[in-house]
Specification:
InterPro entries: LysR_HTH_N, LysR_subst-bd, WH-like_DNA-bd_sf, WH_DNA-bd_sf
Number of strands: 12
Family: Belongs to the LysR transcriptional regulatory family.
CATH architecture of the largest domain: 3-Layer(aba) Sandwich
Shape: elongated
Protein name: LysR family transcriptional regulator
Radius of gyration: 29 Å
CATH class of the largest domain: Alpha Beta
Pfam families: HTH_1, LysR_substrate
GO molecular function: DNA binding; DNA-binding transcription factor activity
Number of helices: 10
Length: 302
Amino acid sequence: MNLYHLRYFVTLAHMEHYTRSADLLAITQPSLSHAISSLESELGVKLFKKNGRNVTLTKYGKSFLTDAEEILEKLDTSVGSLQLAGKGEGRIDIAFLRTLGSDFVPRLLRKFLDENQGKQIDFSLHCDKVITDEILKGLKEQKYDIGFCSKINDEPLIEFIPVAKQDLVVIVPPDHPLASKSEIHLEETLEYKQIIYKSGSGLRHIIDHLFDQIGAYPDVSYEIAEDHVVAGFVANGFGIAVAPDIPIIHSLNLKVLPLISPSWQRNFYMATLKDAYHPPVVDVFKQFVIEQARNNLDYRTI
C-alpha cells in the first residue's frame, strides 16, 4: 500500500472535493483520482460516493479513515522523534537506583537541561523497584539508553564508568546495644540479627565481600531490595544492617555508625550497552556525565 495514497485519501475525506484536495496536495486532479482508484482497487471496496460536485465517504471509507488517521499520526510522531534524535534532541531513557533519585540524578539532569536550553530534550525515568540486575537486563534489551547503578563483574556487554561515591555505614535502632558506639568494626555486628540486601542488588555483592574478608557471615532475619525499606525495618527493631549513607537514614529514628573496617566505599556507575547504536542526544548526555564525573571525583550522594 502506497503511503502517499493514504495521505491523499485522508485529505480528500476531509475536503470532499477532488479539485480543492488536489490543489492542497500540489498534485493534478487526474493523479489524485488515479491514487484513490488504486487504493479502492487494492482494498476491494468503494471508499467514496459522488454527492453532486462533491464526494462523501461510504461506510467503508468512514471506517478506514479512522484507522488511516491513526496510522499516519503514529508514523508522523515516530518520524518526528527520530528527526529530533538525529539533531541531538529527543528522549533519553534512563534507569537508576532509587537511592540516587533524591539528589544525584535530578541534580545531574537539571544541570544538563540548563546547559542545553532551547533544545527539545525529554527524560523517560525508570526507578520504581529497579535494582542493578534489572537495569543491566533493560540495557541489554535496549529498553534503557543509560543506567545509573552498581557495578557487577562478569558483564562483558556493559561499559561501567564511575560517577559517584557513597560510604557504607551500620544502622541500628537507638536502643540497640551497639547504639552507644561512635564507630564500628564489622566483626562487632556478627552477634546480632541482620537485614541484608536481596541477591541481584549491586550492594549485596559488596556486603557479601565485606563479610568474606572477616571470614564470617551474620544471622540474617530478612532480605530486602530497597534502601528505604531496609532502613524502616531496622528503625522498627527487626535487625541491624550494613547500608549506604543516604539521606533517609538520617531522617528516621536510627543510630548511624561509620564502618571502620573493612573499609569500603560504594561506587556508582553509569552503565551503557557496549557497541550499541545511540542517537546523538544520548551520546551528548553520556559525554556530559563523564565530564561531570571527571570534575567531581569526590562527589558523594549525600
